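WP5 quarterly update. Target: FAD-binding oxidoreductase. Source organism: Epilithonimonas ginsengisoli. Length: 343 aa.
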Amino acid sequence: MDQVDYIIVGGGFAGFFLAHQLQKENRSFVIFNGEQISGSHISAGVCNPVILKRFSTFWKSKEQMDYLETIFSEIESYTGKNYIINEPVARIFHDEAEKKQWLKNSNKDDLKPFLDPDFITLDSVENPLESGIVKNSCRIDVENFFKDMFQYFDEKGVIINDSFDHDSIDTENSTYKDFQFKKIVFCEGIHTKDNPYFDQIPVLPNKGHCLEVKIDEPIDPYIIKKKHFLFSLSDKRFYCGGTYDRFDQTEEIDPEFVEELETGLQVFYKGNYSISKIKTAFRATVDDRRPILGTHPEFTNLHIFNGLGARGVLNGTYFSKVMFDYLESQIDLDSEIDVKRFY
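Structure tokens (predicted):
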């Protein structure tokens, strides 16, 4: 029987960032990747400390942004790549009231590091009222991050491309099939509903659509934001997304949301484009907008790391360290993120 410190269930941001923390500290683990496509895999990967509807910040935004460079520098040490793309968010203003609110908020202590009071005019899109730059914002190369991390861990022999069978867990003896484990951490996203140990946790599926579009003309090198994001993936390939739908729980592409994305793009981009791909997946969200970390109330060797929501990169990077410190050093979790809030 193979002995491991950890079994990680789930291959999205939560699972891979936690795997990084474990590797860094020389803990043994396997990752059950499964076959599901999670919201992580098609996400924009935008790391933005500002809520762009209200020009406000959010809980622990500074701490999360401060940790971003650290964790990706650590990951670079073994993949050989840094996945941070230092293109800031450029928010197209809808009206003069938004510009005034931006300027007002840019003087607040918590927003001074992020809201640039000097507006710009983008050349490639319609922005007659100018655009505001979110300083220190960026995005990660989601596509290559998952490709490289999967390859790296697969070559180390710790990726298991099987669905996880919850019924095969022996909690008393800490075994799962051919594995003897110390802890299992479930990073299953919306699939926690199928987990008999954590199925009562209110993880809400939020369906998102995004487009990959081909644009031949040059676009300003920013994460351009009006209703949706537009930014370059590679030569002439662009990301356009995403949408939010709490009601549809099918995996089918919804033409209504594809139309919403196209309409939103055409509002500010008047050039020609063609759609190369349409993608859809589910984010794991929580009503209180806090991730879920902690331990099962009865089985102390079973744990959960979930609910990263639309800020998957920022929540995943920062709280993976919080999760590791909790598991290994018994550092108490903040009550706002502890799974105990649901018991």
